[in-house]
From TrEMBL:
Residue ranges of every copy of the Methionyl/Valyl/Leucyl/Isoleucyl-tRNA synthetase anticodon-binding domain listed in the record: 316-463
Enzyme Commission number(s): 6.1.1.9
Alphabetical keyword list: Aminoacyl-tRNA synthetase, ATP-binding, Coiled coil, Cytoplasm, Ligase, Nucleotide-binding, Protein biosynthesis
GO MF: ATP binding; valine-tRNA ligase activity
Organism: Haptolina brevifila
Domain spans labelled Aminoacyl-tRNA synthetase class Ia: 40-260
Entry protein name: valine--tRNA ligase
GO aspect biological process, one term: valyl-tRNA aminoacylation
Amino acid sequence: SLDRYDCRKQLWADMEAEGLTLKVEPHTQRVPRSDRSGEVIEPMVSAQWFVKMDGMAKKGCDAVRDGSITILPERFEKTYFNWLENIQDWCVSRQLWWGHRIPVWYAEGTDKYYVARSEEDARQQATAELGEGVVLRQDEDVLDTWFSSGLWPFATVGWPAKDEASLKEFNRFYPSSVMETGYDILFFWVARMVMLGIEFTGKPPFHTIYMHGLVRDGQGQKMSKTKGNVVDPLETIDQYGTDALRLSLVTGVTPGQDVPLSMEKVQANRNFANKLWNTARFILMGLGDLSAEERSALAVTEPMSEVDLAALPLPERYIVSRCHTLVGKVTDQLAAYDFGPAGQAIYSFLWDEYADWYIEISKRRISASGDPEAAATARRTLVYVLDSCLRLLHPFMPFITEELWQRLPHEGPSLMIAPWPQRDDIALPTDDEAVAQFGSLQALARSVRNARAEYRVEPGKKIAATVLVDGDLAEALEAEADALAFMARVDPAQLKFESLLTSSETSAGEEDGSTVRLVVGESLNAFLPLADLIDAAKERQRLGKQQKTLEESIAKINARMSSPGFAGKAPPAVVQKAETELAEQQEQLSGVVKALARLPPPDAEELAAMKAAEELAAAEAAAKAAKAAKAQ
């Protein structure tokens, strides 16, 4: 009954007395201690129960190799196989206070034991072998937690089936579809579910295993109380909302990689939720004057057809086409378990295209157009696109999307069970020409806004503009002159359209520096007669920067196209794309050079500034070269 430490000293003394020792020397070793009590943890030999694993492991490997189970990302297959192919028999005995008791009963006073489903079954076995009056004692150990949890896929859905009802429940819910969990418990839990499921039911518990990463702090560090960087999800939800946290955990994430979670990201997604709410609020306000019948007619019951799409004006054809493209993209990404890019695509579309462009244009159509048909078309498009996006976004942000969908005209009791926007794997119709034409309108509006900002035109001041354009694009832009003027902050009465091929107007303005030339594309230019607002030196600087950027880009394209093997090895589509890009940029460069040539010559002050800038650039280049030479 000696203490363990005293016992060890006594054993050593006894060995020395018997002449069984050779020498004494210090030895450093790790001494494990309990994280609760701080006591040294000592090994103790005891009887343990094991599960023989080699046969079960082979079945688990076969299920992945024959395609019955798919592991995503695929790189985790190596981890899975490495563990199962080198598996050892599994010790399932645990000396814990709580858990499933080991199903073994010992016959008191004998060395007999019985493995059974219940004490009654064990007693029947014991009585048959030892006779009546046997006293049984169940093993006091409990099963390993991972053994118990490994039974979860089938033990919770009626297994083992004792009657028709439990068998029906089992057949309905087993096997399931997708197992999604962290990569750190692939062999602790997932592999064991696979092995136990096949062993007891003959079928794998699921067809796909999707491994996600671990959630870390914003700097990618593992969360710990010691570091003080633990993010409490309940506190985060109270501050930013459940949907913002959900979206933050999904977007910007690569399958199987750890998830850096910063409060800045959660806050940004909270702002996105606010943006979505305000967008829906604007739409609902526009429906306030409609009758119940008119509101009901706006409910989205099926995807828009190609005929209905073709009948819409340009902005509506654009936004519906982009929405349909988004539906197809997100559908494919979700099918491939590429959740992060899918969520980001919805986010970008709603914020950058729907809210920033179409919502702004629709305000003019609904409130100021005076055209009831245009207003009705805008309302119908607003509801259609938002409804489609809410369906796409619902798996990521279920609470706000359900709330908003319930407030929109809709059919059905819940968004959760509403049909997916794309049905029967049939791609939704799009109008590529409308997308390209509206893209030109966007590029033109951005160019005008950028020029206004660069020359510091007062935000509320409307300016004149002449658009030089030809062909179908000219017709499309003229039809949407009001939308273009609104988005570009141009005076609609002073917005003119001329042929790029024949117009010579504003050339005088370019000569005296009173007009800014915008080279938007190969077949789209614009002149802004800024008159007193223009600064010739600043315009020269702006065009010079654009010239330098285009020259560098053209040089890169030429270098790539002239590299060995590009023309011979690159796919024809890639070569054609490079050639088209080169031609477009050369055309833009030509326009920039001409615009520079039309500017009035710099005065003495500007020449002095240009000379000083050149000397500074030369000095910096020389210093950089000297530093590089010294480093060599």
